[in-house]
Specification:
alpha+beta
Length: 151
């Protein structure tokens, strides 16, 4: 892997609150926030984009680490629906800076991320994706590069 620079922006000046991250030479952007900052994240322009996201938390009964991996054409709308899920306490979102992610791209990324998460075994997943979205070879390669930066 080539070298890269990570640029981290702290809108509130606190690394425990809403964070926006970018990696040099990557078309993606990451946003992360504790659940208490979800409303701030939803107000950001990036939340209108298509992307993939993670919800992290723990099972209130067993204490097991839980995660939910999803995709949405409009991140804001989908995350609003997740307010009803009680288990999560942090969210991480990945979008494209050039708004070049299509529904097929994000479905592909979601599928790959679920596969990677299952193999890593660090979290019990709150969802499962049985689809296997197809992309043209060039798009698959682009999404694998995008995925490598998410990782």
């Amino acid at each position: 892997m080539t070298s890269a620079t990570i640029k981290l922006f702290l809108p509130h000046g606190d690394a425990k609150r809403l964070r926006v991250g970018e990696v040099s030479n990557w078309t993606g952007k990451a946003l992360a926030a504790p659940r208490t900052e979800l409303d701030d994240l939803l107000l950001r322009e990036e939340a209108e984009s298509a992307g993939v996201y993670f919800l992290f938390g723990s099972d209130p009964e067993s204490g097991d680490a839980l995660a939910y991996i999803g995709e949405a054409e409009v991140i804001r709308d989908r995350l609003k629906q997740h307010k009803a899920k009680d288990f999560w306490n942090a969210v991480v979102v990945f979008v494209s800076k050039d708004e070049n992610l299509t529904k097929a791209h994000i479905r592909y990324l979601e599928n790959r991320l679920l596969h990677e998460a299952k193999q890593a075994g660090r979290y019990r997943l709150e969802n499962s994706n049985t689809s296997n979205p197809k992309l043209p070879e060039s798009d698959r390669e682009d999404m694998e590069v995008f995925l490598s930066r998410i990782q």
